[in-house]
From TrEMBL:
Signal peptide: none annotated. Keywords: Membrane, Transmembrane, Transmembrane helix. This is Glutamate synthase domain-containing protein. The keyword Transmembrane helix applies. InterPro entries: Aldolase_TIM, GltB, Glu_synthdom. It comes from Novipirellula caenicola.
Amino acid sequence: MFDAMSNHWLMLSLGCVAGFLALVFVFDVFIQKKHTIMHNFPIVGHIRYWLETVGPEMRQYWVANDKEEMPFNRDERSWIYASAKGENNNFGFGTTEQIYGIGYPIIKHAVFPFPESKAEHVGDDPTYIPCLKVMGESHGRARPFQPQSVINISAMSFGSLGSKAVAAMNIGAKKANCFHNTGEGGVSPYHCHGADIMWQLGTGYFGARDRNGRFSIDVVATKVEQNASIRCIEIKLSQGAKPGKGGILPGKKVTAEIALARDVPVGVDCISPNAHSEFDTVDELIDWIEMIADRTGLPVGIKSAIGNGGFWKELAQRMRERRQGPDFITIDGGEGGTGAAPLAFADHVSLPFKIGFSRVYPIFQEAGISNDIVWIGSGKLGFPDRAVIAFAMGCDAIQIARESMMAIGCIQSLKCHTDHCPAGVATQNRWLQAGLNVDEKAERMARFIKSFRKELLSLSYACGYQHPCQFSGKEIEFSTGVNKFSQLHEVLGYTRDTTGLKETRSVNAAKPELVK
């Protein structure tokens, strides 16, 4: 038979090809552990990486340029992927941005940058950037918490993401020494690999309910006592993707494990109420925050997208009068969102981050309590230039979600709501998750956070500062017209609170120091 095949070149060639493809199949599925796409789609998956390689050359003729894809364009995704993989994340041949376009930001460097040789850091991590404020300190909480990173992983529930994705993020967060927000799905076993945890409580109170489905402070207190990694609690009033509407976990994602954790039926859409049942007024919200903080000892804060401003004025007034309330406030922009949402909510409800934050922060400044609160930004802030603007506006830390997903392999297929995520990130499908190697992706997550912080520090040094929270808005200008640029603090109408750090500009200090 072999002689017959050898005499027929076509059959021999097909046999060789089939044998080669069989070997590739075995290698992709059973041997290699690095690439999720190649595991989940053996043989065919290689085409995706080849097309990605030639993509820039082909798109400029056939599809779109590197700045047109949404919600994250090719350059943005390339920077995330390269940073996470420890590859070269620089770009050549100058900028491709329209730098005279309205709203385009420019960061103004100092003539005498801060010398990197004089930078201080803790341990062996030169990217270490701690939050300069301590959550709960101003309200005398029993267990205050100082985040050890200004860059952290934002709220993404187990359920919205698969178990392996959550585990990889948590392990990566521990390696990078940042905190990991659980999302409203509650604290799952996959959040408990050693990273600091921000436990989010949404309107469904998942993981914090009694047998009747009501919120239970006893359940919360017990869980906090049993898990030392829970360092703070975030009450979600609303989120950028669907403010004023509860979370949506499609039934395809509600496995038996998730149903048990959330106490909901298997395979049925898990939809959170659009409003909290434990409070209806500002004073009731403050009372609830104080009850949780007193019982657990933890700092308690709130997260919200920004719509009507009346609530914030009343909250600031009552916090000043009562000297109580949230220890931190997370402002979420309307451009955010990692899961399922109605199109109208995703596109049109809630203000984008810069507008929303700039309307809330001055209210608390006027009340004289903005320095007592840790301000956290969220909403497509996972890039150094956007982070700098957020810090200059008043943020003390930021949280990133979709950028974290891409750091562990998300390819922006826009299938988060279908349970068919090809990268195994936003799915409960066992086959699709099987290709996601937790250890490999955890390393990528940690590298991305550290690379992000490294570039953020470089920008700070270039402007004469040692910490990004020293940006005040004077170092940033926006294009506000034809050949016209305006300083950020002029556009905003306010200047962020000072950090309390000694001046670090080389022209003003012989020995720049990062001390209070």
